[in-house]
Amino acid sequence: MVDKRILITLAFLLCSLDLLAEDKTDVVVMTNGDHFVGEIKKLEFGQLAFKASYMADSVNLDWTKVQRLESVRRFRVELASGALRSGSILKRPSTATSPGDFDVVEDVGTTSVSFLEVVELDPLEGTIWRRFKGSVDVGFTLHPQEQTAYSTSSNVDFPAENFLVSSQVTSQFSRQEGAEDSEHHSASLSYYQFLSKNWFVMGVGQALKNNQLDLDLRTTLGGGGGRFLIHTNRTLMTATIGLGWTREKYFDTAENTETAEGLLGVRFYTFSFASSQFDTRIVVYPGLTEWGRVRVDFQSSLVWELWKNTFWKVSILENYDNRPPEGSRHNDFTLTNTFGVSF
């Protein structure tokens, strides 16, 4: 029979090994002399999320105030040029003779750039579930005049070494005594494969149900290419062009209609450090097989951070069709206020 003391000793050693394996020794030194040793969580929108062992929660550090950084862990590094790199990272004090003060050490060599060209950092270690990031927000309104409304949305992204998968789901419902219920439900899944020099290719799938437009279901599959017009750690602007195939079913018709369309899109995103985010997207679908028809999907949101990982969001959604079925509306416009959390 095995001695209990031996079992206890083995359990203690295993726990110690786990703790050592989880220990993080990333180093960050700020321009004011503050020195941190712990774990780099991510860099996003000009904020470096960092957590030391003595911190209850991670803190956000201003990326422009980082003087030195070092980690032997492997990171996905997104650059302002649109290029992606992966490897251990090192940021050293910049000098006049060495403007490339940020190194990404890969298996095939080292890439040196200015640290201000680094747009995003994501750890590549751990389980695949740790790589997901996104947000969920919910709004609910109850009026005395027999009116009820709710709205919810979620965004989930999966950044890999050289591609990004992004999903979005929104749902809105409004009921008022004596009026028709209003429903708007949409879902989208997008894939972006990043190329060099600010170019990327993409594929997208969308589904929309909107009774204000008499639309039972609209599904769109498309693809194309795009370019970063602005790509910094505070501001993003992209332009996309492609082709799409759309299938529609309206409430008052028994048949599905199928059309080929163009796809022209612009997105603008900007971030104010520790304050607010502004995101606007517009996609225009000019008809190809139904010449002269034009559809427009527009969404815009303004987000204020209330507390760590919690926010208040004001959103605008609009779907427009210049040639809807006879008797149907041309557009549906919604404005929502929601509260949410990010992860």
Describe the structure.
The chain is mainly β and 343 residues long. The chain folds into two domains: 104 residues, no CATH class; 211 residues, monomeric porin ompg (Porin), CATH 2.40.160. The chain contains one helix and 21 strands. Strands 10-11-12-13-14-15-16-17-18-19-20-21 form a twelve-stranded antiparallel beta barrel. Strands 1, 2, 3, 4, 5, 6, 7, 8 and 9 form a nine-stranded antiparallel β-sheet that branches. Strand 15 and strand 16 form a beta hairpin. The longest helix has 19 residues. It is globular. It starts with a helix and ends with a strand.
Low-confidence stretches: 5-22
Distance between the termini: 48 Å
CATH homolog superfamily of the largest domain: monomeric porin ompg
User: Which strands sit side by side, in order, in the main sheet?
Assistant: 10-11-12-13-14-15-16-17-18-19-20-21
Count up the helices: 1
Q: Supply Rg.
A: 24 Å
Number of domains: 2
User: Sheet with the most strands?
Assistant: 12 strands, antiparallel, barrel
Number of E-type strands? 21
What's the overall average pLDDT, rounded? 85
β content, as a range?
over 45%
Structural class: mainly beta
CATH level 3 topology of the largest domain:
Porin
**CATH top level of the largest domain?**
Mainly Beta
CATH architecture of the largest domain: Beta Barrel
Instruction: Sum up the overall morphology in one term.
Output: globular
